[in-house]
Design goal:
The complex is a heterodimer of chains A (180) and B (805). Chain A is α+β, with helices and mostly antiparallel strands. Chain A is built from five helices and five strands; from the N terminus they run E-E-H-E-E-E-H-H-H-H. Chain A has a five-stranded mixed β-sheet, with helices on both faces. In chain A, strand 3 and strand 4 form a beta hairpin. Chain B has 20 helices and 29 strands. The chains are: A alpha+beta (180), B alpha+beta (805).
């Protein structure tokens, strides 16, 4: 029995989809019921999108669909057909973390690190929408990401630092390392 | 010869300490922020199958029949196991106390909703779950037992019929003349308390890949194991294979807080792998499984407690009666959680006598497991609440009554009535720091004004002990026979001077690999980047436990420094031979072995290691060419417990003082925290940023405990909290951002003077928030004595005094 999709072998209902993930085009045959997260993790081998609850509350599986956050556990892979995604693996490059990732490191914005990719993706969207967010805006935007370790204080500091760094990068014309 | 393990940072062999004690970034983090850590669900093996587990929908029922035929015939299914397989090939799970175990898959009857009944291994999780739906199980419902008091009554339905009772343990422990203390008390307060079930809920659930080797008869398990070596022992006992044939490989895990579990899941996956002819089988617990059937429920407690005192506020005796509802079996260390309060039973105070009337009982709910703090957090709330009530009734300020009863700083080490010894502390200093930071007088004035306006504003001020560096002997009263928790490290230096430290635990979030790099870099005069920490599996690592019981920072430091001292002795012997001097003439400093006062008489550590590894002809003939050393640390001076559980158990006693300001909305019962101040003394801080993270994370979980988190069951024992929509984890908007200060009284008993810190805020925050709520309610004559103090609970309470609102 083939294991080409996360849902086991392809059935008659399997669909061909084309998606661009982190700048790389993929064609795949997926079962309609395969979640986007299982597709990214299982079929594409992008394990940085973590599954914390699989019912849409914890936000660990947050990825960007055309630059906007979606939950990989609440969306089906077939719904991403023809669209562009960015996952945590699309940020940073060898030897250079993305400024958001770097800020989390410097401000101790993580402990176990399991929720962190989801937070980083949500912060990415936040800082696109609000380059200089207030603490209230940060809280509002990250209200759908749960962290059990840090108590969020260091995450708030990380977001403030990331915002400052990204504003400085924009002013100086340096593009952060990412592949959309 | 070595002077032994350095007791302070100043004793490290370096002229300038660069890393230990500094807020250095964690070496773990670049991998984690990039999403590249190999959490267990990211691992895959060739031919791997996926497991799904069928769980009981009923709290108490006989299993009349399980028909697996349609499941076995489903395409993609490789193996199905039921209780019959468990009965035939495994032993019951280990329990504390011993002898109350059931099998990992229900045999004959189910005892709680979520209990594993059968499991399937198939080509994908999707297929496995399809196949589960084809299982046909017929149950005969039995009367469910969900009330702990009823479970103690004669004639109650029995969970384990052959035991003849649901009461696992009932004993009264008395330390000193408690009768007399209460008889002669000038004042006393008594209260009943209810602490509802809550639990760990790390963001990653448990997961395992089990692989049976049918030729060798061995088992390899990769998983998110908090304590791989002990898990191997438990699995060995269940699967009836010798421990040396089980290899546990702990992967980085997404948090634990004690609540990772894994014994049942590991055994079930192993049975499936065996039945599938040795194919690896992965089981990833989903969140619903975790919430209703995992290791995430703890502390289901009914208390009645009394405090005796004099009119001047001197506390003279403490009585605590606890009925602890362990759920379906004592397999999850719930009993240990009821024993641990002995380590700090009387808190920060000189209360001379105490009594603990302890009952552990089974009900048809999920077996309780460990959770951060391992038992004292509810006890601390009970004690601090009673202290506050005594103060209120005696007309004393909460700060004043505490100050009058603190163990004075010049009386350490101090033995408490339950036998444990506190190493050091200055509780008044922490209290004073909080009062100063918060402008406490002004807060009280503001509170008086708010009260005059009819607002419910409260201040909660509590001081607690965090027992650190756990030892098994603390749990002697529930039948744990061991003393000492070995933690080993092997270190080696290569021919370029780079250092590898091999440890027996994986990443969990506390930053211990960073601490290891800090300690070794300062010891051997290298950069942190020159140190690599490599986890070993359960067979390869030296004796180990891993994280748990606010212990690993201290234990790991001891093991690292012990190994470093041993390695130094070898290097000194080699260098002395090469330099033609006496070993005693050499000292290690700044990464060089040198003769003090003789310029140029020195060899870098890297050079000595290189000679050892590449020029054995230059070595003394009896020196092995091995620049490596192992050391296994355990806490010194631990003592066997007497029959009342008195022992020197946890090595360190950290202290924290928390002050919380809350306001309760009279209309909705909602509690808003609008001020929070902390002074914390965990001894010497090896990495202050790590410490602050531990404290703040504990505050978040403590706020959850006080206000949000509760596992609810209905009268049929049905689990009502099965998603994060029902079980409320604090969000970024729920957690306060306290102002913090550090007090440092080094531990005289530990390497570098550090104390355990991982659980301190969890020991303190729930009590502080509940005391603040009670302070707010005091003018109404109301007391909140059930956790969590949810809006619904407080609204109902408020309605009792103003029913028309």
């Amino acid at each position: 029995m083939s294991q080409t999709t996360a849902a086991g072998g392809p059935s008659a209902a399997a669909r061909h989809i084309r998606v661009t993930v982190n700048g790389v085009a993929h064609e795949a045959l997926v079962e309609p019921r395969t979640t986007l997260a299982d597709f990214l993790r299982g079929d594409l081998g992008l394990g940085g999108t973590h599954l914390g609850c699989e019912h849409g509350v914890c936000g660990a599986c947050t990825v960007l669909l055309e630059g906007r956050t979606v939950r990989g556990c609440l969306m089906l892979a077939v719904q991403a057909d023809g669209r562009s995604l960015t996952t945590i693996e699309g940020l940073g490059r060898e030897g250079a973390l993305h400024p958001i990732q770097q800020a989390f490191v410097e401000e101790h914005g993580l402990q176990c690190g399991f929720c962190t990719p989801g937070f980083v993706m949500s912060v990415h969207e936040l800082l696109e929408l609000h380059p200089d967010p207030s603490d209230e805006e940060i809280r509002e935007h990250l209200g759908g990401n749960l962290c059990r370790c840090t108590g969020y204080k260091a995450i708030l500091r990380s977001v403030r630092l990331a915002a400052r760094r990204l504003r400085e990068a924009r002013t100086s014309g340096t593009m952060p390392p990412e592949r959309a | 010869m070595s002077k032994g393990i350095p007791r302070s940072i100043a004793e490290l062999p370096t002229s300038k300490v660069r890393y230990v004690g500094e807020r250095v970034p964690r070496i773990e983090d670049p991998m984690l922020v990039s999403g590249r850590a190999e959490f267990i669900d990211n691992a895959a093996l060739p031919g791997m199958l996926h497991c799904a587990i069928l769980r009981s929908p009923l709290a108490h029922a006989r299993i009349l029949r399980i028909d697996t035929r349609r499941t076995e015939a489903h395409p993609g299914v490789f193996a199905v196991v039921t209780g019959e397989d468990a009965r035939a090939t495994t032993a019951p799970l280990a329990t504390i106390p011993d002898g109350w175990g059931v099998h990992c898959l229900a045999v004959g009857k189910v005892r709680f909703v979520g209990e594993p009944v059968a499991a399937v291994a198939a080509t994908s999780r999707y297929v496995a779950e399809d196949a589960l739906e084809l299982l046909d199980v017929e149950y005969e419902p039995l009367p469910p037992l969900v009330d702990a008091f009823e479970a103690c009554q004669p004639g109650a339905p029995l969970l384990l019929e052959d035991k003849g009772t649901n009461v696992v343990l009932h004993r009264k422990f008395t330390w000193g003349d408690v009768e007399r203390a209460f008889r002669e008390a000038e004042h006393s307060v008594t209260e009943k308390f209810r602490w509802n079930r809550l639990g760990a809920n790390p963001m990653e659930t448990f997961g395992v890949i089990a692989q049976w080797d049918p030729v060798e008869g061995t088992l390899t398990c990769r998983g998110s194991y908090q304590t791989q070596g002990y898990m191997a022992l438990g699995v060995s006992a269940v699967l009836q294979i010798p421990a040396h044939k089980i290899r546990m490989i702990s992967h980085p895990h997404g948090g634990s807080f004690g609540g990772k579990g894994g014994t049942r899941g590991t055994c079930i996956a192993a049975m499936l792998s065996r039945k599938a002819g040795g194919r690896p089988v992965k089981w990833i617990e989903d969140r619903m499984e975790y919430l209703i059937g995992g290791a995430g429920q703890a502390w289901d407690r009914h208390y009645e407690a009394s405090l005796a005192c004099k009119r001047d506020g001197t506390l003279t005796g403490l009585r605590v009666t606890l009925l602890d509802d362990l759920g379906g079996t004592p397999e999850g260390a719930g009993a240990i959680s009821a024993a641990k309060p002995l380590t700090s039973f009387t808190g920060c105070y000189t209360i001379p006598v105490a009594e603990y009337d302890l009952t552990l009982v089974l009900t048809n709910k999920l077996p309780t497991g460990p959770y951060r703090g391992m038992g004292p957090p509810p006890h601390n709330w009970v004690l601090e609440h009673l202290v506050d009530r005594a103060a209120r009734e005696l007309g004393l300020d909460p700060a004043e009554i505490r100050r009058r009863n603190f163990i004075p700083k010049d009386r350490f080490p101090y033995e408490i009535p339950t036998g444990n010894e506190y190493d050091s502390g200055d509780y008044a200093a922490a209290l004073d720091r909080v009062l100063e930071m918060s402008h406490y007088r002004r807060l009280r004035e503001e509170q008086a004004k708010a009260r005059a306006e009819g607002r419910l504003v409260g201040l909660g001020l509590v001081s607690t002990i965090e027992p650190g560096v756990f030892d098994w002997n603390a749990y002697a009263i529930v039948g744990v026979p061991m003393i000492g928790v070995p933690e080993g490290v092997s270190i080696s230096i290569d021919l370029f001077g780079k250092i590898v430290a091999k440890v027996g635990f994986s990443l969990e979030g506390q930053g211990q690999y960073t601490v290891a790099a800090q300690v070794l870099a300062d010891y051997f005069g290298v950069e942190m980047g020159d140190v690599r920490v490599v986890p070993q599996d359960s067979l390869a690592a030296p004796p180990h436990f891993g994280p748990g019981g606010s212990r690993l920072g201290v234990a790991l430091t001891g093991a690292l420094l012990g190994a470093a001292e041993r390695l130094k002795v070898k290097l000194v012997r080699a260098a002395a031979h090469l330099m033609r001097c006496e070993p005693a003439a050499l000292e290690l400093k700044d990464g060089k072995l040198q003769i003090p006062g003789v310029p140029g008489a020195e060899m870098p550590v890297a050079q000595v290691a290189a000679v050892m590894l590449t020029r054995s002809d230059l070595l003394p003939p009896d020196l092995e060419p091995s620049p490596e050393a192992t050391y296994v640390w355990t806490a010194p001076g631990r003592t066997p417990a007497d029959e009342n559980g008195r022992a020197k158990s946890y090595l360190t006693a950290a202290n924290a003082c928390h002050l919380v300001r809350v306001e309760i909305d009279r209309e909705t019962g909602e509690v808003k925290i609008d001020g929070y101040w902390i002074a914390d003394d965990c001894g010497v801080r090896l990495n202050p940023a790590n410490v602050e993270g531990m404290i703040q994370g504990g505050v978040a979980q403590g706020v959850g405990a006080a206000l949000l988190e509760e596992y609810a069951y209905d009268e049929q024992g049905q689990a009502l909290t099965s998603t994060f929509m029902d079980y409320l984890i604090p969000t970024i908007s729920d957690v306060p951002q306290p102002e913090t200060a550090a007090i440092v009284t080094p531990s005289p008993f530990t390497p570098l003077g550090a104390k355990g810190v991982g659980e301190g805020a969890m020991h303190t925050t729930p009590a502080a928030v509940m005391c603040a709520i009670n302070d707010a309610l005091a003018p109404l004559g109301l007391r909140a004595t059930e956790t969590p103090a949810s809006p619904q609970r407080l609204w109902k309470l408020l309605r009792t005094v103003s029913p028309n609102r």
